[in-house]
Amino acid sequence: MTSVSRDTQAGGCCAPRFSVSIPSHPLDPLSIEEIPLAANLIRQNAASDRLKFNCITLHEPAKAEYTAFRSHTGRRPDRRAFSIVIQGKQSPRVSEVIVNLTSRQVESWKDLANVMPTLTLDDLDVTEQIARNDPRVIEICREIGITDMSKVYFDAWAIGIDERWGFERRLQQALPYYRSSRYDNQYAHPLDFSVVTDTEAQKILSVDVRRVNGERTAVSRDEHNYLPQFIGNSYRPERLKPIEITQPQGVSFRMNGNEIDWAGFKMHIGFNYREGLVLSDIRAHDPYGQRERMLFNRISVVEMVVPYGCPKPPHHKKHAFDVGEYGSGLMTNSLKLGCDCKGAIRYLDAVLPTATGEASIIENAVCIHEEDNGLLYKHTDFRDGNVISARDRKLVISQIITAANYEYAFYHTFTLDGTYKLEIKLTGMLNTYPLHPSEQAAPYGTEVARGIDAQNHQHIFSLRVDPEIDGPTNTVVQSDAVPSDEPVGSEANPYGNGFYAKKTPLRTAKEGATNYCHETGRTWDITNPNCLNPVSKKPVSYKILNNNCAPLLAKPDSIVYNRAAFARKSLWVLPYRDNELFPAGRYVCQSTGKEGHPHNDTILDWTNRDEGIENTDIVCYVQFGITHFPRTEDFPIMPAEPVSVMLRAANFWQKNPALWVPASDVVRDVFSRDAFEKRVDSAQRLENAKL
Amino acid sequence: MTSVSRDTQAGGCCAPRFSVSIPSHPLDPLSIEEIPLAANLIRQNAASDRLKFNCITLHEPAKAEYTAFRSHTGRRPDRRAFSIVIQGKQSPRVSEVIVNLTSRQVESWKDLANVMPTLTLDDLDVTEQIARNDPRVIEICREIGITDMSKVYFDAWAIGIDERWGFERRLQQALPYYRSSRYDNQYAHPLDFSVVTDTEAQKILSVDVRRVNGERTAVSRDEHNYLPQFIGNSYRPERLKPIEITQPQGVSFRMNGNEIDWAGFKMHIGFNYREGLVLSDIRAHDPYGQRERMLFNRISVVEMVVPYGCPKPPHHKKHAFDVGEYGSGLMTNSLKLGCDCKGAIRYLDAVLPTATGEASIIENAVCIHEEDNGLLYKHTDFRDGNVISARDRKLVISQIITAANYEYAFYHTFTLDGTYKLEIKLTGMLNTYPLHPSEQAAPYGTEVARGIDAQNHQHIFSLRVDPEIDGPTNTVVQSDAVPSDEPVGSEANPYGNGFYAKKTPLRTAKEGATNYCHETGRTWDITNPNCLNPVSKKPVSYKILNNNCAPLLAKPDSIVYNRAAFARKSLWVLPYRDNELFPAGRYVCQSTGKEGHPHNDTILDWTNRDEGIENTDIVCYVQFGITHFPRTEDFPIMPAEPVSVMLRAANFWQKNPALWVPASDVVRDVFSRDAFEKRVDSAQRLENAKL
Question: What residues of chain B lie within 8 A of the CB of A358, using their CB?
């Protein structure tokens, strides 16, 4: 993403303008030169020449090294690449390699056991081809009257766990659909079987056919399309007049490479194959000390899980970890002005590796733009009629991914009051399954079209926040709104109205594993206990606001409960460790979630260490999401459903940090006593005029 | 609001264009002709000529009468006014009058006991004048060094309950502040006493001085201002470049009087002195049956309460009911383009009565506009690179009120997926109180500036939804997301991943009084059990999504717990009755909340009847809001904090109701296998170009 950037202005139609630069910031993603360089260095050190690059990505500098550089007390960190390579076909061997690109040396090469890395687009591609040509698949399609195999499509999915095989094979499952014409909506025609493939050996391991009372389920021939070529004649363009959003003087942010400066906020925008967007070094200008203050060291979405709630096989194997199993970076859309975003946009391209160690570019992978955000503040003095108001502004840094059927749009937003908000919009297509005439969808799904079952599911995201509230040593304090402890009528609470925020510092990792509580409107303050706000005399803090955190509904000891342990809690707080990023493990594919894995530790292992998290360098994993009971309205394509989490300043600034924002026109005398009299007069004038 | 309307287009500066019309719809607010007509008819029937009009407002037709008219089976309802009049000074007598404006007759005149109606702006105005001139007040101001009484200001508040007086007097409390110059922020200089006034007798009943260890608290002389004349030199206009939002072809909605037609939605926009905005007859075009379907009969915010959490007197008396005690309509701001809203705006004026029975106009009381709302839906087919997306649109009908220090902006919004959302933005000024040097603000408040305490408080709103989901007979079904009842390993739940929505119909009013549950992500489906969705075979429904519902923190038996009983539950469901609107009573000022009041029934009385609410005409009261622990960032003026509640279609339409929205440009081949190869090529070309 460093390498290529492009400006686009609403309404303008300037030709794409590329500018190629060498990474200038230690957190810049690997460039188009660095990826093949790393690949070559790795090849030179490999035992085999049958090497598949699962990833080649920036190996971020250790925090101590980076912060020394940032504070001008240490040298510029060397550029390093981290790569996972797979060798061998039948029993793939997985190795982790760290390459120093500055010194052009392989610094470490570690062979691992019992792990399976992320499925790349290349990996997923294999499944459809081999499934479509498999004689068993052809036969069971024929059984339900399908003879043209070019109309059968297979969505390749991570498999979760299939007890029939273990780590000796790299597995996928494939969910089949039928298309009656080229652009037909396949999710209207799900088929009643599933396929398990070995992607390295490129073979079908099993074709699992579901029979209900011994019968196959016919494929639905009803069409439910949404593309313009099918439904364009029912469009009603006359109903919606255009809304034009422009910035005639250009955007309010400035970029220097991947660093952005906007309205007092500064940060670095990174990108990698797995997390997609990574925001680092987030800091804000404090107008009351004329200084820059650190807020967050690093923010990214490090995991998510989508467990399906239908207990019948094979649906128990559907619980995609879209970050860990597929990679949010790999699945990134190339964005387009007017479709994905409106207004004056700056796009950034992403640079990703291929399986053969080359660089590839996703144009317009990241969108950066501003939006008007309504009222920032307003007050009317009812006496003198003085009205003051100012308008808020949003900086939005966004990315959209396609995970087979589903789409996730990630909007990292900052507003002028100092708030960070991650909003995710969920859209795309429901995963569907055919209903046999003897079946009904309820209670584990909804019949969204005749004979089409869309099953209950959840989306639980994990936002990793590495805070640095006014410095590296922070404490999370749980805050519960509770009534006064004193009874009604007591001296301390005579009228019974007393209530307060009960504050509980989280002291160890086990205490830091905690859940939201609605009854107390629980929030969590990320505080710096060493910095008191000079006004409130409370530690400066940012508050985690997270009431959109659907609890994991799978039962303890279910497969997904074990594999997605991170989703059991609304919040985990842990001490910071370099390279500890992924709460479901670095290797999520086929993972069991069992604690104590030598090469695949998860958030349970980190929590079991039960180290101190008070007044030290900490990391927060914030889980949020929704439970989705499909509706007919979600078919054939889902209206976007938003879900969000916020980090909001709480006694961080001495006062409203947005007082520098010029007020909108100040209006006088619209609400005063005099104005009231005038309103009566004008009503009377109008009445008289009518007589 | 019927009487006067005005168009304004962004960027344009057309002169105001008034058009005067006679109410043409039975739900139109009283016009500038009807208010004085009603007043005259009332005067002719009054015993005394010392009559004060507390309100003169539309007496809405009975539902049966109105729906008969609407369905062309009954005649047009007569126009009627409802008025509350106050006679006498020492012991004010309150009467309710209904006037038939069509037949020009007073139809009913009822004298009430033990009730106190809403405080009008006239009522509130009295307090500051008499307090400022009272010798006791002058003396206690002098004690803390204040001699210029023109610099002392009094915010008049409803009093809640003060045990020293009852219904024999119409009471207010006044909270005093000091201003060091004309436009100085008074909330930076709160004073340490409060005043109780009798507004009818126009006298001070008590001056309550707080002494801490026998000492007065000095007034803070620190200034904390926010108006441009004080802080304009620290504005940084260069940081934010303009964002222009225009609709060159005009807006997408059409209005006929107070009826609006937008993107398939139709409704009537009403307004009155108490609720402010009232949306009625909300219906939607169903593209799949080419018919109009009823959604909601009437939606409005019927109450709110703001209990403060500091147990020390006099703060227990601060729990404003801004709708019932002050009137959202009466406190409405006159709005301005570019300050309150951006884009192409249609404003509506409001017509309100004065104490002497005249009509007065608030210009631009209601703002109607559209906004781009980001992605409506998107899907990329990863095989063929087909991308489809469409953009969502919002219709926003809004109103902003000033309640002394606080501002509330109400945004009633509709989006293309059929969703109704009420978003409220809270802004304005914190209520403040001086800290004595021996005191600290914690735990019941925050020191937001040196010596200035801003106390914990809540804002709990009551949204009244009179649903008519495909007809008048509806049932609310509680929906809880729960794991399967079967254990892991059982035949019905072998892998433990099963979960479903447990549905519990609410059958009686007592069952209908229910709370949100986070653990089950509780929602409530307003269903029509008589209309099954032909696809899902489930009753058609709209779902109440309300997880922003801060529980009332005042203890049982506290004053506010009794007076604001409505705030004890997230949801109440009751059978519909004409004129049953206000859950804290029609007369909230000085109310005790005791059950069984002959003229002031509350939601407790309605619930105690425990009538059936299944498959009948029902009304839902949805409580939502926030608990506010003030932050230094909220001073001297608060950044807007949003809170919202939603009603979302759930198996109401047969499929996505927004497929008529034209897709944005369809993009091909950006995500396909071919495109991926191209990305590699383009990276290589770039690299070659650099060599």
Answer: 680, 683-684
